[in-house]
């Protein structure tokens, strides 16, 4: 009969994210021409501050009213619709960009975008959040930000680069490491 099956540990088998996961409109949660579109860009860096050129980022978020798309086909873009989901690979300089809308608060916390990072050397993706600098008053009441030590909180807050433009760099380890969430 043999021995019973048992769980096996995760294994690093990549990187091959560029083969099938990215798709042409992946970085466009909304088209960039929409009047309410914002741009979120940044870089993924390793512990030495070097770019990670073959990472893959996914973002998940509510719409501007704090509503999460739950209708059938919500992840399928049709013209100017909001999908709530985006996927973008990094370029040779570790850079990424998304066109989306600023989310409304969903629940009691501050508005945020959930970010998953898949990268070589990671057994599983890491998860973090991107908060917006202009929501400082809401940050004080956010349940997650309330448990993050003061000296690490800035790693979760994007920098404003201009009208409707934000920068959010993600450092995977080392000095200034981004706060990652465990589930």
End-to-end CA span: 36 Å
CATH homologous superfamily heading: Aromatic compound dioxygenase
The CATH class label is: Mainly Beta
Count the helices. How many? Answer: 3
Helix content: under 10%
Which assembly state applies to the chains in this document? single chain
Spans of at least 5 consecutive residues whose pLDDT stays below 50 are none
- Average pLDDT figure: 86
Secondary-structure element series: HEEEEEEHHEEE
Largest sheet: 5 strands, mixed
CATH architecture: Sandwich
User: Might you state the CATH topology name?
Assistant: Protocatechuate 3,4-Dioxygenase, subunit A
- Care to count the β-strands? 9
Structural class: mainly beta
Tally of separate domains: 1
Account of the 3D structure:
One of its GO terms (molecular function) is protocatechuate 3,4-dioxygenase activity. It is an enzyme of class 1 (oxidoreductase). Its EC number is 1.13.11.3. This protein is mainly β and 183 residues long. The chain has a single domain, classed as Sandwich (Protocatechuate 3,4-Dioxygenase, subunit A), CATH 2.60.130.10. It contains 3 helices and 9 strands, in the order H-E-E-E-E-E-E-H-H-E-E-E. Strands 1, 4, 7, 8 and 9 form a 5-stranded mixed sheet that branches. A 4-stranded antiparallel sheet has the order 3-2-5-6, with no helix packed on it. The longest helix has 4 residues. The chain is globular and about 40 Å long. The model has no long low-confidence stretch (mean pLDDT 86).
């Amino acid at each position: 009969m043999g021995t019973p099956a048992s769980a096996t540990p995760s294994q690093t088998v990549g990187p091959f994210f560029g083969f099938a996961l990215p798709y042409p409109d992946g970085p466009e949660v909304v088209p960039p021409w929409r009047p309410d579109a914002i741009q979120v860009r940044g870089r993924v860096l390793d512990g030495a501050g070097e770019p990670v050129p073959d990472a893959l980022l996914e973002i998940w978020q509510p719409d501007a009213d704090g509503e999460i798309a739950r209708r059938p086909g919500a992840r399928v873009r049709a013209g100017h619709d909001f999908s709530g989901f985006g996927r973008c690979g990094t370029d040779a300089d570790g850079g990424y960009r998304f066109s989306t809308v600023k989310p409304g608060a969903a629940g009691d916390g501050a508005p945020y975008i959930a970010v998953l990072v898949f990268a070589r050397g990671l057994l599983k993706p890491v998860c973090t959040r991107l908060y917006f600098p202009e929501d400082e008053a809401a940050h004080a009441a956010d349940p997650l930000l309330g448990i993050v030590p003061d000296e690490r909180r800035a790693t979760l807050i994007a920098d404003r680069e201009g009208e409707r433009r934000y920068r959010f760099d993600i450092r995977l380890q080392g000095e200034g490491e981004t706060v990652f969430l465990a589930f």
